[in-house]
Amino acid sequence: MKKIFKNDAFQFLSLSMGITLLVFAVEAAKGRIVVRTVYFTLLDVLDIIVAVSIFIGLFQVWVKPATIVKWLGKGSGLKGFLLVCTFPIFMGGSLFTIFPLLKTLREKGARVGALASFITAWGGKAPLLPLETQFLGWPFAVLRLSLVVLFAFIMGVLMDWVGDGPAKMDPNKEAREMA
Fold first, then answer.
1. Do residues 19 and 90 both lie within one domain?
2. The pLDDT value given to residue 150
3. Cα dihedral sign for 141, 144, 150, 151?
4. Of 14, 27, 114, whose CA–CA distance to 69 is shortest?
């Protein structure tokens, strides 16, 4: 039970519920707006969360840690950086999909620099390119995507230089805790 109260998610949930109750106490109409917004937001993301959970479960079963280490681990070198600096640009999805994926990659042996490059490159969002070029033009879009790749590479190198530090995880920790 102690672990539940130390959990960051539990603490954020408790804080947000407390603030919501405070808003209700001060002005009930605004409190109802908060609850309605939370409700509809949860409905919007529920299908994403379920789909991502299934995907992460399949990923855990089908992808061996050795494969992740080969492509994104310490010895992957330039090919690993090229992969994580370019591939995520073409991925869609929200933070609800990316962070669980990154956690799984880390647990399977991806280095911190690869994760930093991945999340930086993912911000490039190539699926939005047609809309971006329509409003801002091709020169802007090409320059922005080029800079995303460059800075994803720089971010990865810097994060690897800093080291594994607090991002280091034990891949079997959660399984042992659940048992």
1. no
2. 94
3. negative
4. 114
Residue spans of the chain under pLDDT 70: 1-6, 52, 59-60, 65, 69, 92-93, 164-179
Q: What number of other Cβ atoms are within 10 A of residue 124's Cβ?
A: 23
Q: What pLDDT was estimated at residue 5?
A: 58
User: Which of 131, 153, 160 minimizes the C-alpha distance to 79?
Assistant: 153
Cα distances from 67 to residues 1, 64, 87, 112, in angstroms, run: 36, 5, 17, 16
Q: Is the pTM of this model over 0.70?
A: no
Question: Are 40 and 98 in a shared domain?
Answer: no
Query: b/e per residue, 147-176, with b = 16+ CB within 10 A?
Result: ebbebbbebbeebbeeeeeeeeeeeeeeee
Query: What's the pLDDT at 175?
Result: 45
Q: In this structure, are 74 and 58 located in the same domain? A: no
User: Tokens standing for 99?
Assistant: 């962070």
φ, ψ dihedrals at 171, nearest 5°:
-65, -25
Residue among 41, 21, 42 at smallest CA distance from 32: 21
